[in-house]
Amino acid sequence: MNIDSAPPIAAVLTCLALAPHPATEASAQVIRGVVVDSASQQPLPAVLVSLADSADRSLQRFLAGATGEFQFLIPRPGRYSVQAERLGMKTETVEHIDVAADKTVSLRIILTHLPITLEGIEASGDRRCELPRDLGLETARVWEEARKVLGAADFTSSADVYVYDLGKYVRELEPGSLKILSESHSFWSTVNERPIESRPVEVLLAGGWVSREPEGHRYFGPDAHVLLSDEFLDTHCMQLRARDESPPNLVGLEFRPVRIQSRRTQIRGVLWLSRETGGLEWLEFGYLNLPGPAEEAKSDQIGGRVEFRGLPDGSWIVSKWHIRMPRVVEEVRRVLHYNVRRPRLKGIVEEGGWVLEARSRETGNIAFAEHGGVIAGQVREMGGPEPGPGGRVALVGTGVAVDLDPGGRFMIPRLPEGTYQLSYLHPSLGGLDRNYALADAIVRSGDTTSVHLQPANPHAVLARACGLEDWAPWTGVVQGHVLLPGSRVAASGITVVAEWEEWGTTVGGAWPRGRAMHVATETNALGAFRLCGVPADLTSVEVSAGEGRDRVTLNATLSEEKPVVKITLELARVPPEGGR
Question: How far is residue 139's CA from residue 412's CA, in Å, rounded to a whole number?
Answer without folding.
Answer: 32
